[in-house]
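We modelled the chain as a single entity of 166 amino acids. Its sequence is:
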Amino acid sequence: MSKIIHRSALLRCTPDRASEHFTTNHLLSLWLADSADVEPVLGGKYEIFWDPTVVENDGTRGCKITGIKPGKFLSFDWRGPTMFQQTMNVADHLTHVVVFFIPHVNGDESGTEVHLVHSGWGSGDEWEQARFWFERAWGLAFDALEGMVNGENNGSLLISKLVEKA
């Protein structure tokens, strides 16, 4: 079984605009979380909050950007929601996310392939439950992102609402 999560989406926008959906607080709050505090520089904050009233335990507080080249790639540490706090958020090494933005041309249409790779999963039943939950959550989040950017829906499906569906 693979310990790596991979999700992809095809967005009808430039790679620079696609990367802004992962680095701009307002845009992140439209498809991924209730609020965000991201500083899009190497070592900057990558803090996403699913419930801003519980920022200590229900978000990525303390996570940092580990690599960034706008329009090309973004990488950052990642924590889990409250239900995985005792597994994901206390590990010696947090899980890690890398997002690639690849120009895509198909005839007259152009856009961006976005590929997300989430790695660093530990062993054991609790880690498997967390990985399985994020496998589904990233899929639903990417559906929301794709729909929002491509004009198919408003994208307001947040991970905080994914708990009910995952």
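As a brief sanity check on the tokenised model: The longest helix spans residues 125-149. The CA atoms of residues 44 and 65 lie 5 Å apart.
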